[in-house]
Every structure is written in structure tokens, then in C-alpha cells.
Amino acid sequence: MKISKKILMLMAGMIVVLGMMCFVGSTALAADETVTASVYDEAEFTSAIGNPTVDIINVAGDFDLTNNVTIDRKVEITSTTASAINVDNHSIIIDNDGNVTISGDIKVTGRGGQTSPIVKVDGGTLKINGGAIEATGPAGWSVVIEGGGTATISGGIIEARIRALDVSGSGTANISGGVIEAIGSGGIGVQVQDGGTVNISGGNIKAKELTGAGVDVRSGGTAEITGGNIIAMGMNGIGVRSLGGTATISGGVIESTGSGGQGVHVSNGSTVSISGGTISAMGVAFGTFGSGVYIRESNSRIEISGTAQISSNDYGVYVTENSRAEISGNVQISGTRNGVYVVNGTASITIASSLRPDITNGVNGFESIDKAFLTTLPEAISMVATESYDITIEGVDPGVGFVLDPGTSDELNAQLNNDGNVVTMSPEADGSYNLLLTSQIGNGNLQLTIPVTVLPAALPTYTVTYHGNNNTSGTVPVDSSSYTSGSTVTVMDNTGNLTRIGHSFAGWRDGSTNYAPGDSFTITGDITLNARWTATSSGGGGGGGGSSRPTSGDSQEEQEETEEIEETEEIVGTEETQETSPPKKKIRITIGKPDITLDDETQQLDAMPFIDSESNRTLVPVRFISQTLGAEVKWLPETRQVLITEGDTEILLTIGSKEVLVNGEIILIETEPRIIPPGRTFVPLRFVSEVLGATVEYDSETREITIIR
């Protein structure tokens, strides 16, 4: 055995040479020095292992082990000459205190077996970044990790006919590189069980022969796969097989390239989650079970989500024996025969708002026992509350239909047609819902979860219209906005210079509410704002953009209504001027009642005042209003006109016409004079009253009109 040192510091002593063995004594080593021992046979190898000063054992020649070798310290085993150690039926055992690194070109071989593998880690630590460990026996096992031991594999080769790497008993293997392969029929590249854990982020794991498995997860075992390549190359081979264990796959490539192979196999009550990576079974179809993912037996469950890609020359996903597959996210699943095939069990497919499984189907789509559930997955739904929406499930075979979940039916007000493939929804409330549909063929079930986003119903909009209210010139402002209920409206100014003879503009009115330009209010429906006018003392035309409120305090409707009430009885069949009664200071009239009050005296009309429904103007008998205000009334039968005179004021009204002459000037009014049985002429109250110099007040609660002159 030769021992060499980096930076050898010979303090004092001697060197004794015994054959090929060199011993260095009485020397002091620097703290960072590494001692390497080159060995040529079993004795030197075991001696170096027992020498705590040796850091690296360089195997410089081939030799056999005749006994097990236990390592209980930190040491690296390597070879710069590609030498080999043949352990035969024995093992290199790394116990609790052992920490061994395999590197370089070292080769460790032997028959290997389940109880006597080539390397056994029993509580210690093994690192492999080079070299090769090969079990050549017909039932060979190469590396076993148990007793809480740990293996970190970043390079090198591990090969066996039956088990290349076995992890159990709270052992852990972290695989980021290297090659691990099973070369025998039924062989397994990596097996994890009974409390073992395997984390695979890289490397190449292979099962080369018939029925082999790249990774095998058994009861109590856990495997997390985030990368690497896992390949089953033989007929009926399986990339990753879970028989009662738990596996999580988020990355990497998993393949079965032989006939009838399976990318991932799930059974014996296993739970497997696939959220990424590429899984395929692309060998020539053999039998009926060639599948990207195959799941069987009660309590077995697989979740396929995220960005997983699954493909097969036969079935993308095969579900049988009362097992369950849950599919969601942006997965891609394709099968030459079927994307998803459910014989006995349940496939549950959830469609997200922005992600939808992309499932490419073969001849018969989503199928169970030669009948298609459907050929195309529906998309997420967005609709408006209170509106009706139909969704059609495409490609449903005759005799196959879906049923609605009762909760879905109530929430979305959903109904299925008689064939069970068209859903009609008309939800009342906005919100986020799930449409749940189930179809059954024999013992196979397909469940669809389709998200439904219900948007609020479109809110009604309202308008503001401006009305001139007997204006004689100018135009009303136009508000082109559409308002929703609760919006704030700002009242416009008299931008079109509305004018009315004998009046000044005083703002706007809605019912009994007065507004000045610039005022605001909350809108709850369509509204018309009528111009408000105040009589001027000169009787001339006022208007323009003024924004003062009327001194009478009347709202626009009140003014319009009192205008119409103030006209007097019509004179029919006489050409003589009628006698007038003395003018009164105050007149009070109530809509729909014949009683009137002249100052404090109560009288009765033989025809009651009323409001014209089209113009919203109050009409009264022309004789009553004219004579009460001290004017004279004359009926002109040839022209069917009424002439009212009072001092220098002359009003000429024509039955059925909205044109009125006031002192020779044409004025348009909004409702025409008319004759009402038994022969009374009715005229607009406010117009006649204000032209004759009176003011009008209206009480909307009592419907009482007061005329003062």
C-alpha cells in the first residue's frame, strides 16, 4: 500500500519500508492536507479502511473480497486506473457512522442479492458521483438504502438485473444525475417502500426488459419526481409504478417505449399526483392496456393537473376497477384510440376559467365500453344574470346523457333537454358558480365541472329631457347623457335662449320641485324638466339665460296646470259682447271640483276644470276666467274664435288651433281651445290669466289653484 500526502511536512522520525507497503511515521500534517492510499488487494483495502488517517482509497488493481467490509467513517473510494473490486456474494456495508463517496473510474461488481447487495447503506451516508456498481447475478441487487441511511447520486452507474437501487426503512435517496438501470426481465431501476423516500430531479433511470419498471413505489414508500428521464423499454414495461405508495410528479420525462406499456401505473390504493412533466406510452399497442396513465382498483386515485402532458398510442388515461382520475388545469392528454377511457370507475374533469384540459381523442372520444361520453370538452361559461344560455355537450352517443347536480340546478336555474346533452341556464343572481354534470355508461362515470361566471344584469339607463313650456322662441337644451339609477344629474342652463312673451325665465321644474341651472339631483327614472316662467309687469317677452326662481314659488307643472284652469266658459252661438262681472282679488279653484271661491264667496261652475292628458295643461271655461278677471268675452261664430279684451290687451283664440294672437302677435300655446258639451269653450288657464296680468299659485297636495290679481 502506498500512502501519499498533499503538502507532506516531515518533522522528525523515520520511514519503514516493508515490501510494497509504505508507512510514514513521526510526521505532522497540515489541517487541509488529504491522505490518499493506493491499494492493490483485499488486505490493503481493509487496512486502508481501518486507518482513520486515510481520506481517499485509490483502487490501483483488481481484486476480490472474501468477506463483508463494514465502513464506519468518512472515506472516498475511487480509481484512476479503472480497477475493479469483485465482492462476489459479499457486501460493502456503510453503517451509522459511515460516510462513503464513490468516484472516478472505480468498478464494484458481484453477484448481489436482496440480503447481500453490492453496497448496503444501513444508517450511513453514500455519495455516488462516478464509477460503477454492478450486480451481475440473475437475482442481483446493487444498492440498498435502509435504517435511515441516505444516498446522494449525481453521477456514475448503478446496474442490476432485479434491483438497481432499493430504498426502505426510513432511508432516503436523492438522485440528480448518473445512470440507474435494471437489465433483467421484471427488473426495477429504483424501488421505494416501507417508509423510504426518493427524490428524483435528474439522471437517467431505465428498465430495459419485459415487464420492467423504471421507478416502483410500494406501500409506505414516497417518490417525488421533479426532473430526469425514466424509461421502461421492454414489452409491457412501466415508467413509474405505484402499488400502494404515494408519488408526486411535477417534471421530467417518463416513457414506456415497449408494446403495451404504461407511462404511469396506479393501483393497490395508491395516490399519485401529476402536475407537470411529459408522460408517454408510445410502443405498438398490445392487448388493451397500453396507456399513458393506467389506474385500477378501489381507493386508487390520480390527480392530473397543471401543465402535465400525457400521450399514448392506445389510451391517454385508462380508468378501471372502481378507481378515480381527477383531471384539471392546462393538461394535455392524447390517445390514438381514446383520450380518456373509463371502464369501471370515475373520471372527473374540472374546467377552469382560463385553463382547460386539452384532451385529444381518438376514434370515439371520451369513451366507456364502446360508447362515447362526448368528443369535445366544453369551455368555461360567461353569461349575464337573468338571460338564458344554452351549452351543448358535443359528440354524445345515442343513449348516453348527463344528469345535473341538484345544487347546480337550483343555483343556476338549469335544466337538461330530454337527450341529456343540452343545458339551459337562466340564473337570477350574478356570481361565480360550478355547473356539475355526470354521465354513466355501465359502471363507468364521467363527471364534468364547468365554471360559470354570471355577470350582473345590464343596468337600465335614464334620460333627462328639457321642455320649453309655452316658449315663444329659442330652443331647449339637449342632455345627451344616459344615466343609471342613483347617478347625479347637473341641471343645464337656458343655453338655447328660450323666451316667452310677457314672462322671464325662472329655471326648471319637475313636478313640484324647482331647479336653478347648476343644481344637481339623483336620478331614478326618465325625467322631463319644464321651463318655469314668471310674468313680467310690462307684459313683454322675457327669457334668455336667466336662472332666477319665480317669485310665486310655483313649480313648472303647477304653473302649467293653473294656466289651463284659469280660462273662462266658452261662448257659443252669440256675437254680442258679454257683460263682465266686477274683478275679484283672489280666485281659488280645485281640479275636478265645480266649487270655486271668489275672495270669500263660494260659487259653482256648471263645467269643472280638468287637466289635458296630452299637454298636462289645465283647462277652464273661458267666460269664467275672463269675466272674473275683469275682461270682456265675444264669440265669433263665422271664424269659431273667442275674443277676450281687457283695457289695451286683446286675446284672440281659435277653436282647435294652438296659434293665439295677443295684441296682433302670434303666440303658440301647447293645447288648443275646445268646445266641451253642453257647449262650453275651455281655454288654457295659466296662459289667459297671465296675459291678463294675474299670477298663479298651485298646491300639489290639495290640487288647489289660486289666481291673484
TrEMBL record:
Species name: Natronincola peptidivorans
Gene Ontology annotations for the cellular component aspect, listed alphabetically: cell envelope
Protein name: Listeria/Bacterioides repeat-containing protein
Phylogenetic lineage: Bacteria, Bacillati, Bacillota, Clostridia, Peptostreptococcales
Keyword Isomerase among record annotations: no
The Copper amine oxidase-like N-terminal domain, residue ranges: 598-707
Localization per Swiss-Prot or TrEMBL: Cell envelope
Sequence ranges of Gly residues compositional bias: 538-547
SUPFAM superfamilies recorded: Copper amine oxidase, domain N
Signal peptide: 1-30
Keywords (A to Z) from UniProt: Signal
Region (Disordered): 533-587
UniProt biased composition (Acidic residues): 555-578
